[in-house]
Amino acid sequence: MKNVSIVGAGKVGQYLINLFNNTPSLGHQISGLYDDDTALIGETIEGVPVIGDLEQACIDAQQGKCDEMYLCLPLGDEKHIMMMLDQLSQSTVVVKYVPDLFAFDLLHSKWMSIKGLPVISVYDTPMSSIVARVLKRAEDVVVASIILMIIWPIMIMIAIGIKVTSPGPVFYKQTRIGWNKLPFTILKFRSMPVGVENNGVNWGNANKKTETKFGRFIRATSLDELPQFINVLIGNMSIVGPRPERDLFIEKISQEVPRYMQRHMVKSGITGWAQINGLRGDTCLKKRIEYDLYYISNWALSLDMKIIFMSIFKGWLNEGFSKNAI
């Protein structure tokens, strides 16, 4: 059992106290809590008394009253951090620094080196490399080609059904925002009469009163999304990626949801990590974006394959995969 001291009674220090107390297997026994706010001395925080200030922490460390000392001070408090490191260097105590909550994202970021200079890649994706982009594109072309060869009879029957039940073009075209915030034309089988468009008042849900009977069927089964495999072959979409949105929604959402624009670091997809986890359309918006960002940060061909197979068996074959996605 190690005797540990914690310097800093703020949120990070309190989190560490609860972590040690709730995880006996770590073998840490808290011997003292210190803070630079002398008014807290004598107070009890999360069941641990504050027994001194920063100078007292250094003195106790030099006297061997603990085995390890965790510094939970804000990164901006450079003066106190450097003072403590200087004093603690005169002791045999193991010293560990825990960044404040503001820096927690950095802990999960990718560390790299440029000629010996340490660099933290905070917002990045494995798809940023040329090799990864080539592999991703090859995957898209191969998978989209195979799927189109399989489904072309279905697409022809849908096209005939649209022509028979409603005059006008087979495809419905709309501008969406994709990779690098560039607009592109997304293709869908037309499910509404010509001249009728869902202008986004009810985002993510088409107005069923404006749909044709056949259109309601292909939309409910997500068959209206099949032409997007053509988008993939063209190169303005991917098989797997965040679902594309319209620019009028992007402007609104980006002001409400942090990091939303990072979805545009990659190509938009027909299916995605968020969709196979049940997050579609305007439901659980923030959670859906979290899943999109997870995919972007952790992309791998194996993850794409997993999403594709889960989309087939969990999505299109069940309740319609992308019907609420756009």
TrEMBL record:
Boundaries of every Bacterial sugar transferase domain copy: 136-313
InterPro entries registered for this protein in UniProt: Bact_transf, EPS_sugar_tfrase, NAD(P)-bd_dom_sf, Undecaprenyl-P_gluc_Ptfrase
Superkingdom of origin: Bacteria
SUPFAM superfamilies cross-referenced by the UniProt entry: NAD(P)-binding Rossmann-fold domains
Membrane topology value: Multi-pass membrane protein
Any one Gene Ontology molecular-function term assigned to this protein's record: phosphotransferase activity, for other substituted phosphate groups
Subcellular location: Membrane
Subcellular location, principal: membrane
GO cellular component: membrane
Entry's transmembrane regions: 141-162
Keywords for the protein's UniProt record, in alphabetical order: Membrane, Transferase, Transmembrane, Transmembrane helix
Keyword Transmembrane attached: yes
Family designation: Belongs to the bacterial sugar transferase family.
NCBIfam families the record matches: EPS_sugtrans, WcaJ_sugtrans
PANTHER family xref list: COLANIC BIOSYNTHESIS UDP-GLUCOSE LIPID CARRIER TRANSFERASE, UNDECAPRENYL-PHOSPHATE N-ACETYLGALACTOSAMINYL 1-PHOSPHATE TRANSFERASE-RELATED
Name this protein carries in UniProt: Undecaprenyl-phosphate glucose phosphotransferase
Organism: Chlorobaculum limnaeum
